[in-house]
Amino acid sequence: MTTVYLNGDYMPMEEAKISPMDRGFLFGDGIYEVIPSYSGKMVGFGPHIDRMIDGLAAIGINCNLSHADYQQICDQLIAGNEGDNLGIYLHVSRGTDTKRHHAYPDNVAPTVYGFAFAIPDANVPDKGAIKPYECSLTQDMRWKRCGIKSTALLGNVMHFQKGHSEGNGETILFNEENKITEGSAVNAYIVKNGKIITAPLTEQILPGITRLILLDVLAKYSDIEVEERAPTVEELLDADEVWITSSSKEIAPVTKVDGKLIGDGTVGDVWLAAQTLYTKHKYEY
Ligand code: PDD
Predict the structure, then answer these.
(1) How many helices (H) and strands (E) does the chain have?
(2) Residue 100, Cα to own-chain centre: how many angstroms?
(3) pLDDT tens, 143-156?
(4) What residue owns the CA closest to ligand 1's atom 20?
(5) Which atom of ligand 1 lies nearest, measured to the CA of 89?
(6) Are 190 and 197 in contact (CB under 8 A)?
(7) CA torsion through residues 258, 124, 40, 119, sign
(8) Which ligand 1 atom sits closest to the C-alpha of 212?
(9) CA–CA dist 99, 218 (Å, integer)
(10) Ligand 1 center to 107 CA (angstroms)
(11) How far apart are CA 136 and CA 142, in angstroms?
(12) Burial of 231 from C-beta contacts in 10 A (0-12 / 13-18 / 19+)
């Protein structure tokens, strides 16, 4: 049985009900988070909640839950659901109005929903044990506020579906200048001559928490150079390594993009070094 959280209560998922007039349903008017947890230990809880609170502020949703409140919800969801590896999904919509009107309504309480779902095992830093990704490539057609983790994900869904329909696990995106922004549900990186290159934090990408932890760990514990610059499509296809990161994938190597082999088509040494450090230090955040 899956236990979920809805507006202050815990209940079986089948019993959780919201109004069809909820603005999350009508407009995708809300913010969400996905926090990974392994054997009861969450990765990046503080930064995930900071990003949630920033996103809610950016779209003017007044939700008075504190870090401690979110912590309690997450702890209960972890305790109330089976499985060692869980993604904790948190979702705050603007709430339920009586009419469908684009303007933000006054005096509407946000809807807060949370559930836990199974995620893969944490990556073992071992080139032989990891299954690399193959990705599609397409122009980024999303809106200009990709830094907001909005529940309105149609653009991301359509981009992901392109990869899925081509038999690939993700879709990497490029902007109008032919530069790599991120992926449909991941941040993206290339490695060339030992240097990692990844798009800087602008409104063209989501400020990924895996990205935040990874770059901090690399800066603190390694000499590996990181350049925050969006690489071109040509650089991506000519890279020695390509990676994608997200809360449920950690650092995932990519060996094929748009049908083209990356490097020699095997998992690279810089990936191994990065995932090894990430595995060692990820609970420090
Ligand atoms: N996706 N970029 C986009 C567009 C994303 O949707 C995600 C996460 C990321 C990586 O962020 P993080 O490292 O904080 O997970 C980057 C989540 C997991 C999802 O939509 O399910």
Answers:
(1) 7, 15
(2) 30
(3) 999 999 999 999 99
(4) 185
(5) 21
(6) yes
(7) positive
(8) 13
(9) 50
(10) 31
(11) 16
(12) buried
- For ligand 1, atom 9, name the residue with the nearest CA: 186
Residues labelled catalytic:
149
Distance 22 CA to ligand 1 centre (A): 24
Nearest-CA residue for ligand 1 atom 4 is 185
Structure tokens at 61: 């949703």
CA of 185 to the centre of ligand 1 (A): 5
Q: Which two tokens stand for residue 185?
A: 């549900």
CB 116 within 8 A of CB 81: yes
pTM of this prediction exceeds 0.90: yes
Residue-wise pLDDT for 69-88, tens only, equals 999 999 999 999 999 999 99
> Which tokens go with 283?
């609970």
Cα–Cα distance measured from residue 201 to residue 213, given in angstroms and rounded to the nearest whole number: 14
CB 244 within 8 A of CB 187: yes
**Helix, strand, or coil (residue 147):** coil
Neighbouring residues of 233: CB distance < 8 A, sequence distance ≥ 6: 137, 174, 178, 179, 180
Residues flanking ligand 1, CB < 6 Å: 34, 156, 182, 185-187, 206, 208-211, 245-248
Closest ligand 1 atom to the C-alpha of 248? 18
Q: Which two tokens stand for residue 278?
A: 């990430």
